[in-house]
């Protein structure tokens, strides 16, 4: 009997050691399993302290990777080399991923903190009943500008001001096809969901005329450049403006009068996920009011978490540039999923614009 017990304990110990080793190996290779969770998020889009806190609370190890555009994220998920448990696409990309059968339906019973989200951000047209996605941050696209560097007498009101020759070599553009082609379309009075090739070519031409004023097309480094007074204007996302303002008092933000984009970034669970339970746990953790408040203060983007607002500094919540009322957001446009072909056309035109600059 004793020897059986001894063999059993030996087997148990060996199994435990093996399990730990497999888990470590999986984590190192970006494979998720029971005890790891692979999260794929935009760059600069989480307070990393919260990753550690989640790991401590749950014993789950997070493998964290970042992307800088919806298109880059989508390509990586389609390729399937890494199995992501949680990703954060914007609304039109959620729709596209659902269409391509890349997402699992979420189990709301595992997301009790979902009740913290403002109704205004639930059940939006791109994902009725939030079957596949949960709001993370939202915002607008607009003009981030440095009031000290603006040419004498210039009053910025909209996209049309950017073509002023006084802004030669002074504008940074975000490296996003929908954002920049959308800016071209909006400045001509067209919708940023326009798919008429004639309008799109006109938008490209209009953008090419902007070239002398464009300093660079950049990603997250726009924040550092603007904070260091290296450019007068950056076209980008509202939350970046809020972030830079924390470092440079001369920075301001404007939603152009011709119209612009209202966007929503969302948690989703790709079909290839290996740790579906852990993914729900992570999303629910991020939805906690105090966690969301800490994250929002760190990231500076606008939170859809209504219960988080009470834990945030008043001046942040009351800033209408980043928490605009529905009167403004109602006149903005949300990107629609334009379909494979049209999206490819947007990307191609954006590439042409980038090449034209060289
Ligand atoms: C954060 C990027 C936010 C993306 N660096 C807006 N969709």
What structural category do the secondary elements indicate? alpha/beta
Unreliable stretches: 22-32
Count, helices: 13
- State the helical fraction: 40-55%
- CATH level 1 name of the largest domain: Alpha Beta
Give the SSE string.
Answer: HEHEHEHEEHHEHEHEEHHHHH
C-alpha geometry: globular
Largest sheet: 6 strands, mixed
Task: Specify the CATH architecture of the largest domain.
Answer: 3-Layer(aba) Sandwich
Distance between the termini: 80 Å
Q: How many separate structural domains?
A: 2
Radius of gyration: 23 Å
CATH topology of the largest domain: D-Maltodextrin-Binding Protein, domain 2
Small molecules (ligands, ions, cofactors) in the structure = pentane-1,5-diamine
Number of strands: 9
| Strand content range | 5-15%
Which superfamily, in CATH terms, is the homologous superfamily of the largest domain? Periplasmic binding protein-like II
- Return the average pLDDT rounded to an integer: 92
Question: How is the topology of this model organized?
Answer:
Layout lengths: L1 H27 L7 E7 L5 H11 L2 E7 L2 H10 L6 E2 L3 H9 L34 E13 L24 E4 L2 H11 L9 H14 L3 E5 L3 H6 L5 E5 H8 L5 E4 L7 E6 L8 H12 L1 H11 L14 H4 L8 H4 L10 H17 L2
Parallel strand pairs: 1-2, 1-3, 5-6, 5-7
Antiparallel strand pairs: 4-7, 4-8, 4-9
Helix pairs in contact: 5-6, 5-13, 6-13
Pentane-1,5-diamine binds next to strand 9.
Quick synopsis:
By secondary structure, this protein is α/β, with parallel strands linked by helices. The chain has two domains: 32-132 and 264-325, Periplasmic binding protein-like II (D-Maltodextrin-Binding Protein, domain 2); 139-261 and 332-357, Periplasmic binding protein-like II (D-Maltodextrin-Binding Protein, domain 2), CATH 3.40.190.10. It is built from 13 helices and nine strands.
């Amino acid at each position: 009997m004793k020897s059986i017990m001894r063999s059993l304990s030996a087997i148990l110990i060996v199994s435990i050691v093996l399990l730990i080793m497999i888990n470590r190996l999986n984590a190192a290779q970006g494979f998720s399993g029971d005890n790891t969770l692979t999260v794929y998020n935009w760059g600069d889009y989480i307070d990393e302290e919260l990753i550690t806190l989640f790991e401590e609370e749950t014993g789950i190890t997070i493998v964290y990777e970042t992307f800088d555009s919806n298109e880059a994220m989508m390509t990586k998920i389609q390729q399937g080399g890494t199995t992501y448990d949680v990703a954060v696409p914007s609304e039109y990309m959620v729709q596209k991923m659902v269409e391509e059968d890349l997402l699992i339906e979420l189990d709301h019973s595992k997301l009790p903190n979902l009740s913290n989200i403002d109704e205004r951000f639930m059940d939006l047209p791109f994902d009725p009943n939030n079957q596949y996605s949960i709001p993370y941050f939202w915002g607008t696209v607009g003009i981030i500008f440095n009031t000290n560097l603006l040419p004498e007498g210039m009053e910025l009101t909209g996209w049309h001001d950017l073509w002023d020759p006084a802004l030669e070599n002074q504008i940074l553009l975000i490296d996003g096809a929908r954002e920049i082609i959308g800016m071209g379309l909006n400045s001509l009075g067209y919708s940023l969901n326009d798919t008429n090739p004639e309008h799109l070519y006109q938008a490209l031409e209009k953008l090419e005329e902007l070239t002398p004023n464009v300093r660079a097309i950049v990603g997250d480094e726009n924040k550092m450049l603007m904070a260091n007074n290296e450019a007068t204007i950056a076209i980008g996302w509202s939350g970046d403006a809020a972030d830079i303002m924390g470092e440079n008092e001369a920075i301001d933000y404007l939603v152009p009068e011709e119209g612009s984009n209202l966007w929503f970034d969302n948690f989703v669970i790709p079909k290839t996920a290996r740790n579906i339970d852990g993914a729900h746990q992570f999303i629910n953790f991020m939805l906690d009011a105090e966690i969301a408040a800490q994250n929002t203060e760190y990231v500076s983007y606008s939170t859809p978490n209504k219960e988080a607002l009470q834990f945030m500094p008043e001046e942040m919540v009351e800033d209408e540039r980043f928490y605009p009322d529905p009167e403004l957001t109602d006149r903005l446009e949300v990107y629609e999923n334009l379909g494979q072909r049209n999206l490819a056309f947007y990307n191609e035109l954006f590439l042409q614009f980038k090449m034209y600059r060289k």
